[in-house]
Design goal:
Strand order of the largest sheet: 2-1-6-11-9-10
CATH architecture of the largest domain: 3-Layer(aba) Sandwich
Radius of gyration: 30 Å
Number of domains: 2
Number of helices: 8
Helix content: 25-40%
Distance between the termini: 14 Å
Shape: elongated
Largest sheet: 6 strands, mixed
Number of strands: 11
CATH class of the largest domain: Alpha Beta
CATH superfamily of the largest domain: Ribosomal protein L4/L1
CATH topology of the largest domain: Ribosomal Protein L4, Chain: A
């Protein structure tokens, strides 16, 4: 188990904790596989397609038969053979109206969009390994530099992963910004805050007028609460792989309670270690 420093708001070392969360090998192929599954499931929440029986549920009674020499048929009436519904009848006189067929009033669509759903399943062990691998990915200085092109040829001064004390949950936004500039440095601070700007080009007219960077991901404990404008704050129980490594490593910061909750979530058998701290 490796030792990780817990930093205060000034970027100074406060204490150390032992954890084995960030020691798994990095497997980008498995991480990307889980991320694609999560994105697919998120897109499939709203099913795109018509009602299964749209145009098939007619309000009138009965349907027209096409048999010969049978009562209530359309034989000898000089009418087409597309589906009809019987609106009224009196003896052998019937009032029919086209139904169901696409060319009729209230009928079904000719070529509706088909609802095609694939069940994408991931093994539990594979999901667990991908989570550990993603934590190792975001704790690697080399992988962070590969993610951000503006950091090419530069070095990150702080040693990842960054774990901060609980005071960041009660600090003001200005104090949090000052703490981040001290911990990561002023050069990297511009990458940590989400900047929203108008997209250049014709994409402005196609539903994607604005674009913004990912910014910093702050992971907090399950019982902690915090909202900061400019950052993504996620609890451990709501954390997904696409939050950590959707397209490579992402700047991530943890609280001390988040580390404990992650250990209980990933390694439940090591819960006694957290109680001994």
């Amino acid at each position: 188990m490796a030792k990780i420093n817990i930093l205060d708001l000034n970027g100074s070392k406060k204490k150390e904790i032992n954890t084995g969360l960030f020691e798994a090998p990095v497997r980008k192929d498995i991480i990307q596989k889980i991320v694609e599954v999560e994105k697919y499931e998120e897109r499939q929440r709203q099913r795109y397609g018509p009602y299964w029986y749209a145009g098939m549920e007619t309000s009138a009674s009965g349907s027209v038969k096409h048999n010969r020499h049978v009562w209530k048929t359309d034989r000898g009436k000089g009418m087409s053979r597309f589906p009809k519904k019987r609106m009224s009848d009196k003896g052998d006189r019937f009032v029919w109206m086209g139904a169901v067929s696409p060319e009729t009033k209230g009928g079904r669509r000719a070529h509706p969009p088909h609802v095609i759903r694939r069940e994408l399943k991931i093994n539990k062990k594979e999901m667990l390994f991908a989570f550990k691998s993603a934590l190792s990915l975001v704790s690697s200085n080399e992988e962070i530099v590969k993610k951000y092109s503006s950091l090419a040829g530069k070095q990150i001064k702080v040693k990842l992963p960054v774990v901060v004390e609980e005071k960041i949950l009660s600090a003001k936004t200005k104090e949090v910004f000052n703490a981040l500039s001290k911990i990561f440095g002023e050069e990297i601070f511009s990458l940590l805050v989400q900047n929203k700007e108008v997209r250049s080009g014709i994409g402005k007219m196609r539903g994607r007028r604005y674009k913004h960077n990912a910014g910093l991901l702050l992971i907090i404990g399950d019982k902690e609460e915090r909202k900061i404008s400019g950052f993504d704050v996620v609890k451990v129980k709501d954390l997904k792989l696409k939050d950590l490594a959707s397209n490579g490593a992402r700047f991530t910061m943890f609280t001390e309670n988040a580390i404990r909750d992650l250990e209980n979530k990933i390694n439940p058998e090591d819960e006694h270690i957290n109680k001994e701290r």
